Amino acid sequence: MNRKLILIFLLAIVQISWAQDCDFEIRNLSNILNGKSQLIDKSQYDKIVEISEEFVDFKPTSEIELTKKYPEIFKLKDSCYTFSANPNIGIGIKTPELKACKYLLKEKGYSNYEFKGTYCGNALIEITGYESWGFLSVDLKNGLTCFTMGKPLTSDGETAISHSNYYGEEEIALTDLKTKEQYVIGIEGWRTMESKVLNNRYYLKLESEFQTDCEKEIKYLKVEIKN
Fold this sequence. Notes:
The chain is mostly beta strands.
């Protein structure tokens, strides 16, 4: 009898664990910006289609052009550019600086960067490393910089949304482009399929992935700064 009770107990634990793995759970990685995210239904998401604002395009600008025009911001030393940043332990920025480096050395590891262009008063630099990637947005007025795993998208030049998937966890970041403060969340087992914006609110369509034992689902998420 005791063995049967133990078996039933263990099966219950497994079922609960499986159910939790299939849930849509938002992990808060950083909330310096005081943002919020809320699940919405499909009908609310669909209403945004016809009145969605356009995302601002990036203007291609080379590394040479930017270093010549902003020598006080872009200073190359030991194969690295160093920029001031807001420390944020939640997403791995533990010092008040961010770097874009280019080297392939055994003692340092692999690191590379590419200047992608400018947008809304920011330079965009793509950085890559061993099992890491992302983008730096560098303010061309003061050099203040933030990191996003995905390419930032903006419609008004004030806030930007970005998303990228890191080994099964979708990382979504809402960034204030002036202060570089961020609201960053992670959602395990989901991937952003598309995003739209209206009146400084961002709407994301996500699909469940990487969960082989779970049914495929679609969820809709609204991300914004709290009033």
